[in-house]
Design a protein that fits this description.
480 residues; mainly beta; 6-stranded antiparallel sheet; 3 helices; 33 strands; 7% helix; 39% strand; globular
Length: 480
């Protein structure tokens, strides 16, 4: 815990850096093209809607009772395109309530941080805020019967009510000391929820944070790192937490220049994976090198009888190497990594060599061997920045090493799909895949429910929305 003097000094330094960044931001080069994450499919919504009569094709499964929720960046004020980065827009949560074979409502609501409250003329909700990151824009999850919008890099959770209104900026009822993450992982074997978190003002530490079944922090263990790595996600096995310390790190040069997201590819930063004992001290972590790459999202991880760790990841060749507006890898693919802590090696095996992202799986099997993963296709071409112009969802059979595609058709672009089992005791893949598909042919969106075990077949149900929802990041099915 920092002393009062250290806290005052750090606050003064941060304030001074902020003034320099604000000054230089006005001098950034003016873009000569349309900002790819403010126009086209990404053009932000400008209002909050409540729609209670939704057109449905097909039949919504009667077993589904709850909400599909999705979070993503949606600036409430038109940002300066010279400094705007996709990852920094104010969060907007979208939700569709399903029960009894009906779609009862759709709602979209800005997470109430300083930007949205100023635009809407509202008082800021109570609770501690991160001044630069107070409207979490990356994920929305159900924890202990409550709903939280979450983000990484020091942001605090924001608690939402059932209808997506902001209740409070809530660091898990005061039990969270530092920041949180966009990617907590629930362990169905123990009931704990694990995460790796980082903060921009603490470049030499990351933290292993564990929540209990009440969504209260029971562990916040510091791990020594260097250079301020951006660790977007983690994975867990029965004995380990996997820490992806890869060559995207904090850039003081970018921060001082005025860029909103000061992280960049760093060739000098070694790529490695940390195997931290789940209840061990930070200095007990075992680091294993890996060839340089970047991972936003793993799928599942598990252990072999001989002590190796298996994790499936979408690996990018580089990240944030050129663009200061959003992700910019030249190549991504699904890989299976075999980490040998005794030999100190990581073997990377290609599962599917096509650009893709947002891998999901049957999360009842977290920490256990599994067979199926689902991801969305990205255009398999070299682009300076990501183009969400693909129309396919992938299903990977990790045992047979085969991949099947569901194509939604020209102009229809899927986001992340989440797996929902038909019953608590259903077999793996016996359930539904649920996600949003943007139709750029008519600027509409649909919530699509696919039968996972009839992946290429017609959807079980399609719930139509009369407007385009900008592609966001992560969604989840939150059962009642």
């Amino acid at each position: 815990m920092a002393s009062n003097v250290e806290t005052l000094i750090r606050g003064a330094v941060v304030k001074g850096i902020g003034k320099v960044a604000d000054f230089n931001r006005k001098r950034l080069p003016r873009p000569t093209d349309a900002h790819p994450f403010l126009t086209g499919i990404h053009q932000p919504m400008t209002e909050e809607l409540t729609i209670e009569q939704l057109r449905i094709d097909g039949e919504i499964p009667a077993a589904l009772t709850g909400r599909y929720l999705r979070n993503g960046p949606n600036p409430a004020v038109a940002p300066d395109p010279a400094s705007y980065h996709w990852f920094t827009g104010a969060g907007m949560v979208h939700g569709i309530r399903i029960a009894g074979g009906r779609a009862d409502w759709y709602r979209n609501r800005w997470v109430r941080g300083s930007e949205a409250c100023a635009v809407l003329g509202e008082e800021l909700p109570p609770g501690p805020r991160n001044a630069t990151n107070d409207a979490p824009n990356t994920n929305v999850v159900g924890l202990a019967g409550r709903t939280f919008a979450i983000v990484e890099a020091g942001g605090k959770p924001v608690e939402l009510d059932y209808e997506l209104g902001t209740i409070t900026h809530n660091p898990f009822d005061g039990t969270l000391v530092g920041g949180y993450t966009a990617h907590p992982h629930f362990d169905p074997m123990t009931g704990e929820t694990h995460a790796i978190t980082y903060r921009g003002d603490e470049p030499n530490k990351v933290w292993h944070v564990v929540l209990d079944t009440d969504a209260h922090v029971i562990r916040e263990e510091a791990i020594a790192v260097s250079d301020g790595p951006s660790i977007h996600d983690c994975a867990i096995t029965p004995n380990h937490v996997l820490v992806f310390d890869l060559p995207v790190t904090f850039s003081m040069k970018m921060l001082l220049a005025g860029y909103r997201f000061p992280y960049a590819w760093n060739n000098a930063h070694p790529a490695r994976i940390g195997l931290l004992p789940r209840d061990g001290s930070g200095d007990s972590i075992r680091w294993v090198p890996v060839e340089p790459c970047y991972v936003f999202h793993p799928a599942n991880a598990f252990e072999t009888p001989d002590g190796k760790v298996i994790v499936d990841v979408v690996a990018h060749d580089t990240m944030f190497a050129e663009s200061k507006r959003g992700p910019d890898s030249q190549k991504s693919r699904l890989e299976r990594w075999t980490i040998d802590p005794v030999a100190g090696t990581t073997t990377r095996d290609i599962v599917h060599d096509h650009a893709q992202e947002f891998p999901r799986y049957d999360e009842r099997l977290t920490t256990q061997p599994y067979r199926y993963a689902y991801s969305i296709a990205l255009p398999d071409a070299k682009n300076a920045e990501w183009q969400l112009a693909e129309t396919r969802l992938f299903k990977h059979d990790l045992e047979q090493r085969t991949t099947t595609a569901h194509d939604f058709g020209p102009g229809r672009h899927p986001g992340e799909f989440v797996f929902v089992p038909r019953r608590a005791d259903s077999a793996e893949d016996d359930g539904w895949l649920i996600g949003l598909v943007v139709d750029m042919n008519d600027q509409t969106t649909a919530l699509v429910i696919l039968n996972a075990d009839d992946f290429t077949g017609s959807p079980q149900a399609v719930i139509h929305l009369p407007h385009r929802i900008p592609p966001g990041f992560h969604g989840n099915w939150v059962a009642d």
